[in-house]
Design goal:
The protein is of the alpha+beta class. Helix content is 34%, strand content 22%. The strands form two sheets. A ten-stranded mixed β-sheet has the order 1-2-3-6-7-8-9-10-11-12, covered by helices on one side. The protein is globular and about 50 Å long.
Length: 418
């Protein structure tokens, strides 16, 4: 007993001594929410559950069939929510988005200033339409028909990620870096994005059971089908962050990145095929992409119009504040390359014993990353942990990294039959 206490004390002292003072956040000690999901309703090609013990609850939406059928089912199931969120999103876009587009090409900023955000979203649609597979538009048409929301309005909302990429952090840890060394992978995706809009009032995990492809899930908000965070039954995990230091040629005519990431989840069996998809795509925005699978582990991709650069734990640059560690690959929430040492010091402090709990309780909370939402993918257990910020009310909210995480059994979700 005494020896066990000494070991725990030793880890505690090690953690305190290694974590940099730039980590201003506090550990998140809230228990993981493991309550059973609450059944709500069912339609011909879908089923709706909600989480219990989380306010607001997260909608867990199962959809089945063709693209149109899955969209129609989601529209039916979420009609009351979509009716509420769409006008709020439109109002938010007019009030807020123009103030946060400094990274866009100057001509596009000027266009938004003269014509408004709606016109810019329409322009984005016409620039990307010919490069986007038709089944995405089929699904949005189904969503429109099922919910009664105007189709073009839903199209405009789905163009939003092409205008507003987020900061974000990502981590992949395996092998020597983790507590469980049986070949698994822990992957963190922390979204640092809008927290003063309506999105976190309507959180959703959409579990797709498509006719074409394999089951997958995205963490999103009601009525949005693009993948900004997701995990598939392959399994493959995806995450992204804006690449602010990109200095190459800009391109707005191509395949929206959030649809490309969703194709990875739906069709690709591993990150090797995902990387081929990225390399062969006509890319638009400059972003970092994180890709994980249990065999090939984790890769970080610098994804731009002109070229793609793929990094592993050995090839990613080492610089002050970003120490290189075997079987560990990470990018913090700041503009890259970043000398801010918090994330690296947190991972270094627990190196050799990193697990999903550490990523949730310490890495996100102490680095203060994932203010909008976050997910941890546990590949060995086929689990996805998710957390979403509280609604923005009277100028205040609780960031996701300080809220209670919810545990989702992805084996059960992917195997659920209609």
């Amino acid at each position: 007993m005494i020896s066990s206490i000494l070991v725990v004390l030793g880890f505690f002292i090690l953690g305190i001594s290694c974590v940099d003072p730039s980590c201003t956040g506090k550990p998140n000690t809230l228990p993981i929410n493991e309550n059973a999901l609450q059944f709500v309703s069912q339609v011909a090609n879908g089923r709706l559950y909600t989480t219990q013990g989380i306010d607001p609850p997260i909608s867990i939406i199962h959809v089945y069939g063709t693209a149109y059928e899955m969209g129609f089912a989601q529209g039916q199931l979420l009609k009351p929510i979509v009716d509420d969120i769409v006008p709020e999103v439109e109002k938010y876009l007019e009030a807020q988005v123009e103030q946060s587009l400094e990274f866009l090409p100057e001509w596009l900023q000027e266009y938004i200033a003269e014509e408004g955000v709606d016109a810019a979203l329409d322009l984005t649609y016409y620039a990307t339409r010919d490069y986007t597979p038709s089944y995405f538009f089929d699904e949005i048409k189904g969503l429109s028909d099922g919910s009664g929301i105007d189709y073009q309005t839903l199209i405009d909302i789905h163009m939003l990620p092409e205008l507003t990429q987020a900061a974000c952090s990502m981590v992949g840890a395996w092998g020597e870096a983790i507590k469980n060394t049986t070949g698994t992978l822990y992957q963190l995706r922390a979204l640092d994005w809008s927290t003063n809009g309506p999105f976190q009032q309507y959180p959703a995990v959409i579990v797709y059971h498509p006719t074409d492809g394999h089951p997958f899930a995205i963490l999103s908000f009601a009525g949005f089908i693009g993948a900004i965070t997701g995990f598939s039954s392959s399994p493959v995990g995806v995450c992204e962050k804006v690449w602010l230091s990109y200095s190459g040629e800009q391109n707005r005519f191509g395949y929206p990145w959030h649809f490309l990431l969703r194709d990875i989840l739906q069709f690709d069996n591993d990150i090797t095929t995902a990387l081929n998809r990225i390399s062969n795509a006509r890319r638009t925005c400059s972003i970092h992409v994180g890709l994980g699978d249990p065999v090939n582990k984790f890769r970080v991709v610098e994804y731009g119009y002109e070229n793609v650069t793929i990094y592993n734990d050995l090839t990613y640059p080492e610089y002050p504040g970003h120490p290189k560690m075997a079987n560990l690959l990470y990018v913090n929430k700041h503009k890259q390359p970043s000398n801010e040492p918090c994330l690296g010091s947190l991972l270094q402090a627990q190196y050799g014993a990193i697990d999903s709990n550490y990523l949730m309780q310490h890495v996100t909370a102490e680095h203060e990353t994932g203010d909008s939402h976050a997910a941890v993918y546990d590949f060995a257990q086929n689990l996805m942990y998710v957390v979403v910020a509280s609604p923005y009310v009277n100028g205040t909210y609780t960031p996701a990294y300080n809220r209670q995480w919810t545990k989702l059994d992805m084996t059960a979700l992917f195997n659920e039959k209609l």
